[in-house]
Recover the amino acids of this structure.
């Protein structure tokens, strides 16, 4: 990797890192209120809102994950996987944004608190916090540091992740949004220049088609249909993504939130396609001998684009890659910190906490979340498996109660929220642990699979199918709780009568 | 040039110009709010 990076590229990366810390210092306000710190005073401009939405959700897992999938399976990475997520974004823009913004919520667990009470919101806060821990980003940041700077992944993640932590602590969402805007622009411009250069370097798609397996140009690839459906279902997590919710809450109006999501969706679509095209072009570069044959599919996109870009632009591209990870770390750590302060400390320990105490507790929460994320990041060999597990946990736990709180017009009881959350959480843990015990580990797919036969038919249950079982269990739990429990109003009336 | 090449270039133009436009609008807004703060 070092042979593709010149000294001027390193200088650009260094200047970029200095700029990030300067922005944190510039955004620092000693007496900022909680709403200013967490939601930038609900006054974010549209460009900032778009930038912070796009860059927070698109981390290195997308950059590496989608390009790796394209490298291995071809166009399926775009048509079978990425497009399903984009459809859910359209649903958020047209159906959910208005409800979320006009209700003036501050966090996702607060939706649960208002609909079902504090017990349910506490479970939601824990799931949200675990989901928002910056594990995958810190792991990926360490990996990029190894490639770019040749330093140990632990030190790289500590130093670069530490810079993201510093400006988040100093400036809250305002600093995060300013840095995200710059990071987003870097990411867009360099990917937009780098991928077409790479594609033309390998001779265009006509030449690519000649040098990669024919299955790579099959729109839905050669992946088993149920697994494809399971990948698409995992995209349901975007409908309850705590960080995306925070951006919607921070918008000036519901209309501004909707427009920002629609613009972001168009940008995500083009970004997704360019990463997929880059992944396939990287495979062609390996097949034709332009790149070394021992390139890991995970790193192929990074190496191929750096190779295609001229000196100077490579530095901006690598700064953009670091930016991709850092913008995810700052955004999610901020939300995890608020889960600890606003959704756990405030309701459970100090309900009368002042604004200043909440900001202080949030900053402590941010440090706790970052530290937990750092510790967990280096405990797993397969970080993508952890990512899918965490996504499945939050979807199984809060998807049903949150969607019901927003859209179900009938009576809602505290028991419905609590049983739905708990049943979802217990079922997903049972499914994962149970399948790891009785299933067989498949080296090719990197997952546990249980195969059994009924009569002459053979069936396979993959760990990725967890949502097919856990979501219906959570929904049944909701209706059982609703049938037997008392609604918030009935509880209040009973207390008054006694 | 195939359809895939054309689509790639189209996406690149859209993504690159989005980055430039958003950055310039953001810088313009920041400059204006800074001017407003200093005049107050």
């Amino acid at each position: 990797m070092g042979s593709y990076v010149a000294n001027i590229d390193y200088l650009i990366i260094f200047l970029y890192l200095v700029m990030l810390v300067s922005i944190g210092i510039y955004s620092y306000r000693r007496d900022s209120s909680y709403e200013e710190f967490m939601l930038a005073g609900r006054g974010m401009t549209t460009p900032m809102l778009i930038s912070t939405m796009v860059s927070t959700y698109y981390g290195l897992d997308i950059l590496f994950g989608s390009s790796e999938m394209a490298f291995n399976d071809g166009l399926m990475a775009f048509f079978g996987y990425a497009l399903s997520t984009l459809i859910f974004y359209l649903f958020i823009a047209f159906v959910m944004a208005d409800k979320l913004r006009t209700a003036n919520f501050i966090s996702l667990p607060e939706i649960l608190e208002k609909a079902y009470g504090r017990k349910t919101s506490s479970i939601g806060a824990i799931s949200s916090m675990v989901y928002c821990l910056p594990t995958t980003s810190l792991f990926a940041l360490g990996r990029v540091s190894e490639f770019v700077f040749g330093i140990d992944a632990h030190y790289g993640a500590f130093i670069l992740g530490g810079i993201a932590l510093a400006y988040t602590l100093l400036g809250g969402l305002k600093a995060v949004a300013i840095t995200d805007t710059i990071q987003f622009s870097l990411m867009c411009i360099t990917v937009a220049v780098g991928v077409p250069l790479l594609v033309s370097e390998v001779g265009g798609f006509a030449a690519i088609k000649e040098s990669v397996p024919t299955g790579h140009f099959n729109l839905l690839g050669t992946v088993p249909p149920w697994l494809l459906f399971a990948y698409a279902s995992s995209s349901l997590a975007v409908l309850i993504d705590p960080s995306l919710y925070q951006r919607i809450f921070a918008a000036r109006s519901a209309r501004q939130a909707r427009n920002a999501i629609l613009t972001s969706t168009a940008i995500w679509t083009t970004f997704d396609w360019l990463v997929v095209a880059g992944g396939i072009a990287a495979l062609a570069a390996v097949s034709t001998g332009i790149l070394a044959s021992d390139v890991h599919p995970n790193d192929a996109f990074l190496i191929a684009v750096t190779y295609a870009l001229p000196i100077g632009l490579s530095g901006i591209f690598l700064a953009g890659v670091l930016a991709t990870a850092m913008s995810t770390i700052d955004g999610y750590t901020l939300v995890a910190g608020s889960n600890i302060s606003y959704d756990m400390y405030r309701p459970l320990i100090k309900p009368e906490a002042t604004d200043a105490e909440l900001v202080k507790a949030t900053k402590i929460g941010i440090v706790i979340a970052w530290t937990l994320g750092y510790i967990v990041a280096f405990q797993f060999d397969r970080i993508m498996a952890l990512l899918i597990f965490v996504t499945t946990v939050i979807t199984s736990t809060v998807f049903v109660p949150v969607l019901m709180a927003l859209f179900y017009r009938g009576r809602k009881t505290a028991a419905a929220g609590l049983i739905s959350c708990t049943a979802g959480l217990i079922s997903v843990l049972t499914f994962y642990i149970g399948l790891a015990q009785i299933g067989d580990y498949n080296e090719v797919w990197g997952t546990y699979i249980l195969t059994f036969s009924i009569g002459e038919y053979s069936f396979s249950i993959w760990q990725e199918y967890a949502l097919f079982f856990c979501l219906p269990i959570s929904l049944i739990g909701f209706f059982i709780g609703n049938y037997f429990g008392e609604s918030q109003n009935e509880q209040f009336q009973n207390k008054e009568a006694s | 040039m195939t359809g895939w090449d054309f689509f790639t270039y189209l996406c690149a133009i859209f993504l690159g110009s989005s980055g430039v436009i958003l950055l310039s609008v953001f810088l313009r807004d920041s400059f204006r709010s800074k001017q407003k703060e200093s005049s107050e």
About this structure: Chain A touches chain B at residues 45, 47-48, 50-51, 181-182, 184-189, 191-193, 195-196, 199, 204-206, 209, 263, 266-267, 269-271, 273-274, 277 (CB under 8 Å). Chain A has a mean pLDDT of 82. Residues 408-498 of chain A form one domain. Strands of chain A lie at 440-442, 447-454, 457-462.
